[in-house]
Amino acid sequence: MVGLVLLKALVTRLLFVLHSLVAVWRVTWVKKEHRYWLLALLNLLLALETVLTLKFKRGRGYKWLSPAIFLYLINIMPSLWLLELHHGNQVCIPKKQTMVIILTQNISTGGNVNQTSTSQRPTNGVGTIIYLTSEFLDTLLLVCDPVWTLALHQTLLLILILGRWLLPIGGTITRDQLSELLLMFVGTAADILEFTTETLKEDNVRTNLILVCGILAVWTWSMLQFPLDLAVQLKLVCPSSVKARGFLRLFLCQYSADLWAIGLSFFIQDGPFLVVRLVLMIYFRVINHMLVFFAVKNSLVMALHFYRLVALIMATRASMQDGPERLQARPSALDQPSESSPSEWEDISREAVPLQTSPVTSEESYPIP
């Protein structure tokens, strides 16, 4: 069992490192500068966290926070920022045009494409694998930069969910809470992907560097909710003494998990997304049906969370009002014997007298004739 935990911890962190290295490689390919390989040094933080986790936690996670996911975000965020900022200067050539260019170059050189490909293909097994790998990499290089950036965004969210699932459970989180957390991550990831694709694809947005940086900052802020597990681990059992300490403490104790989910929606996800979309529509005059739809969706989600907050406040007030009545009812039931009259106590004592055994003499028991 310990070996399986260690294996899952290592495999998950290795997946994080490989994906971040692919993003760094893409940055160096786009920028045509090898200095961007220095971004790969950020993985040393994840390597240090891996050593400490394996040594002190035996591969298990921490309470309320996943340092591995947090460091993975630190590793890959700079690469995605550079790709998004470089995105506006790239022209995506369709695949058909690319194939036409390649065929034109082959014809101009006087070569036969089929004969060349057939003659260069190796016959042994290892050579075939190397040849197919090189062909696959050449095909990937033909993919334009916007498609690469979108693929990195999608795989980032998928790896976050898969990695949180594979990471060993630690702290006080249970499997039931982990499944609930993963379902929350799926919905959150879909909203975040919609936000980046629908806002950054506009030409008017791409030409404004400050606006692009603002959108990326909001996107980065929204990604910080993935390392946190507070939405499922703050479900506490409040003691009865909390009611006597006031409304606020009872409210925070009973509905801490719900309040955390509402706070995520208002301040990390739906609230900032709504502000960005309203700024795009009102100030920058960027209006399309998808942008309007998602703005209405964010508004509706926030309204539903506000309705949920009001319902929780009313439920807490009701529990505060019911508490003193129950406390008053219990002493009245206990005080009923004290309100009885003295005659009733005398009757009870008279009825209890025959039950007592009085000492008798031997003469009373056996009379002398």
UniProtKB/TrEMBL annotation:
<keyword id="KW-0812">Transmembrane</keyword>
<keyword id="KW-1133">Transmembrane helix</keyword>
<feature type="transmembrane region" description="Helical">
    <location>
        <begin position="274"/>
        <end position="296"/>
    </location>
</feature>
<feature type="transmembrane region" description="Helical">
    <location>
        <begin position="64"/>
        <end position="83"/>
    </location>
</feature>
<feature type="transmembrane region" description="Helical">
    <location>
        <begin position="247"/>
        <end position="268"/>
    </location>
</feature>
<dbReference type="Pfam" id="PF09772">
    <property type="entry name" value="Tmem26"/>
</dbReference>
<feature type="region of interest" description="Disordered">
    <location>
        <begin position="325"/>
        <end position="369"/>
    </location>
</feature>
<feature type="transmembrane region" description="Helical">
    <location>
        <begin position="209"/>
        <end position="226"/>
    </location>
</feature>
<keyword id="KW-0472">Membrane</keyword>
<feature type="compositionally biased region" description="Polar residues">
    <location>
        <begin position="355"/>
        <end position="369"/>
    </location>
</feature>
<dbReference type="InterPro" id="IPR019169">
    <property type="entry name" value="Transmembrane_26"/>
</dbReference>
<protein>
    <submittedName>
        <fullName>Transmembrane protein 26</fullName>
    </submittedName>
</protein>
<feature type="transmembrane region" description="Helical">
    <location>
        <begin position="36"/>
        <end position="52"/>
    </location>
</feature>
